[in-house]
From TrEMBL:
Transmembrane regions listed in the UniProt entry: none
Keywords assigned by UniProt, alphabetized: Hydrolase
Stretches assigned to the UBP-type domain: 51-113
InterPro entries named in the record: Znf_RING/FYVE/PHD, Znf_UBP
GO molecular function: hydrolase activity; zinc ion binding
Compositional bias segments (type: Pro residues): 120-134
Protein species of origin: Naumannella halotolerans
The name this protein goes by in its record: Ubiquitin-hydrolase Zn-finger-containing protein
Chain coiled-coil ranges: none
Length: 149
């Protein structure tokens, strides 16, 4: 586990070994990922353990999805409010990935297809003690009937 802050704090400034000014080993920028970076930002941690809008509304969800660009956590299209898709429409962020334990697929709204994406900043799923549907205590007893209705 590597904390993103540690990565930023790691610099070569403290290393002075009578250098010859050879230019160091700075990582060159690869321009090839330019467009991908607008869709996926692996360094952004998730917004929290549950759907952002459901937490504000007192709602509940079936499964959680994570925006691969800004870390927004929203609920899936099987949920009553479909906040993950709503986030795509308001933000234009086209890629989500699963926020369920054991799932690592990505989905592109613009193509309608799933694909394997990069490793994102942890955590990559909601807490294991949080049930699905969730959150605990807010899921109606007849949630299956509500969804099918
Ligand atoms: Zn939601
Ligand atoms: Zn987003």
């Amino acid at each position: 586990m590597v904390d993103p802050d540690d990565i930023q704090g790691t610099s070569a400034e403290g290393i002075s070994s009578g250098g010859t000014g050879a230019g160091g080993t700075g990582a060159g920028s690869t321009g090839a990922k330019g467009t991908e970076a607008r869709r996926i930002n692996p360094g952004v941690p998730p917004s929290g353990p549950g759907c952002v809008e459901c937490a504000a509304d007192g709602g509940w969800w079936v499964h959680l999805r994570r925006c691969a660009r800004c870390g927004h956590i929203g609920c899936c299209d099987s949920s009553p409010s479909k906040h993950a898709t709503a986030h795509f429409h308001v933000s234009g962020h086209p890629v989500i990935c699963s926020y369920e334990p054991g799932e690592d697929w990505f989905y592109d709204y613009t193509t309608g297809g799933t694909f394997d994406g990069p490793e994102l900043a942890p955590p990559t799923s909601h807490p294991a003690d949080q049930p699905a549907p969730g959150p605990k205590g807010r899921v109606p007893l007849d949630w299956r009937a509500q969804l099918s209705g």
